[in-house]
Specification:
A hairpin with a 2-residue loop joins strand 2 and strand 3. The chain is α+β, with helices and mostly antiparallel strands and 202 residues long. The chain is 25% helix and 27% strand.
């Protein structure tokens, strides 16, 4: 399949929000919040237009990925810039065809070109592990409350990028949304029923 990866533009915004909603609906909770997160990220100071990409096939957007500015704060309070990947969305009918991987690689290449050290994300280890992401515990990086878990993953963009840097991970505040806020935002979109699914229980 011939896929074109390019920067998202303003004309794509609503299409990509529909795609994100469709891709995440009922996956982690009944409904989803990822389309609202994306909407807010675009308006955040941590938004980097060059790291906001869509994947197209025959002129139709079938995937999207974004990486935004985040930080690792060490014990002295010094903040070290990193990136946070997500949301990463692929049309469910196109999943399993390498589209997500192509977006990840394109984001990594561009982030490396821009001089960033590393990318951190929250995602499935079985998926992101294929692309070199590993639990942040290996770098001594935790959430602000000191916790770490297998889904909190990191990939350095060059060897030794985080040597000597340990601390807590702080993504953009746009990720802090409530289900109630998402429900209000969701009124802009066609109605969809929410369900409890096996993926949520896992």
């Amino acid at each position: 399949m011939n896929i074109q990866i390019r920067p998202e533009n303003a004309q794509d915004f609503l299409t990509v929000e529909h795609l994100t909603r469709y891709a995440f609906w009922d996956v982690y909770q009944p409904g989803c919040t990822e389309h609202l997160i994306l909407h807010r990220l675009r308006q955040s100071p941590g938004f980097i237009p060059a790291l906001n990409l869509v994947a197209e096939h025959e002129g139709i957007i079938i995937g999207h990925g974004v990486a935004t500015l985040a930080a690792v704060k060490d014990s002295q309070g010094t903040s070290h810039d990193v990136l946070c990947l997500g949301p990463l969305s692929v049309d469910p009918a196109r999943q399993g065809q390498g589209i997500g991987g192509s977006l990840i690689r394109a984001l990594e290449d561009k982030a490396r070109e821009l001089g960033y050290r590393a990318i951190i994300l929250i995602g499935h280890p079985s998926y992101y592990g294929r692309f070199g992401f590993r639990c942040t515990e290996a770098w001594g990086i935790t959430m602000p409350d000191g916790t770490c878990f297998p889904e909190m993953m990191l990939a350095e963009l060059y060897p030794g990028a985080l040597d000597g840097i340990r601390g807590t991970f702080h993504p953009d505040g746009s990720f802090d949304v409530t289900q109630e806020e998402a429900d209000v935002f969701d009124l802009r979109f066609p109605h969809r029923e929410k369900h409890i699914t096996d993926t949520q229980l896992k």
